[in-house]
Write a structure and sequence with these properties.
Blueprint lengths: L10 E5 L11 E4 L6 E6 L3 H6 L3 E4 H20 L2 H9 L3 H10 L6 H12 L14 E2 L2 H11 L6 H9 L7 E2 L1
Helix pairs in contact: 2-5, 4-6, 5-7, 6-7
């Protein structure tokens, strides 16, 4: 996983929502996450840029957005077999009982890992949905999908398709 860019801590990144180059003096660059033309400007030009209708973003937000997108885009590589085992080990009692019920009798840990990696490779997947800061509303249903369809569908993408059927439009609750 690799990301590049240069951050100017005491400046603001200014972008034209229309995708054009910003007409405010500063250091012209390319916004690292989405590849849009951008300009780093001094704090004294922040209000002027905002009045011209530009999007103004502080340096910390630029950095956190870039890191978040890097993680999202590489989550399927970061979500290893061992990490899946840790995630499943930390499930609430009711859901851990489901895992005990289906692994390895009906579905292997590798298949569950494959389904989660399939989700992780999708643009709509939010990695927070697999840790303690967010929870799938229907995580037990997702975990049951490999049990119900694991033997009839051998490819991870197919198993992921079954699991996505039960996901609500908003999969994260806080």
């Amino acid at each position: 996983m690799r990301g590049t860019g240069r951050i100017w801590p005491n400046q603001f990144m200014v972008m034209d929502p229309g995708g054009g180059q910003v007409a405010v003096p500063g250091i012209h660059t390319i916004e690292p996450t989405f590849g849009l033309p951008a300009t780093w400007v001094d704090a004294s030009l922040k209000e002027e840029a905002s009045l011209k209708g530009y999007t103004v973003v502080d340096a910390a937000t630029v950095l956190s957005t870039h890191l978040t997108e890097l993680l999202k885009n590489n989550m399927s590589d970061l979500l290893s077999y061992g990490e899946v085992q840790k995630l499943l080990k930390d499930l609430p009692k009711e859901q851990s009982e489901l895992i005990k019920d289906i692994v390895p009798a009906q579905v292997t840990m590798s298949r569950i890992s494959g389904v989660l990696q399939t989700f992780a490779g999708r643009a709509h997947f939010d990695p927070r949905s697999l840790d303690h800061s967010g929870r799938y509303r229907r995580r037990a249903g997702i975990l049951a999908q490999p049990r119900d369809h694991g033997r009839t569908c051998s490819r991870p993408a197919g198993r992921g398709r079954f699991a996505r059927r039960i996901l609500p439009t908003t999969a994260i609750c806080r």
